[in-house]
Amino acid sequence: MPRYYEDKPEGAACAGVKEDLGACLLQSDCVLQEGKSPRQCLKEGYCKALKYSFFECKRSMLDARSRFRGRKGY
Fold it and tell me: How many helices (H) and strands (E) does the chain have?
């Protein structure tokens, strides 16, 4: 379900994962049908795979090995 943005320039690190996570949450049944906020839905466990990918991307920025290997791409 990842989206690739060819027209947009690369912005901040993990921007693609962050945008996909936001889109996933806004399209989830939790937000659309139950009327909850995206933050509440994220805490309830919606979009777990994208949440984990975003966490791993942010964590790789702090990893000292990433200076040599580069960030994990999305």
Answer: 5, 0
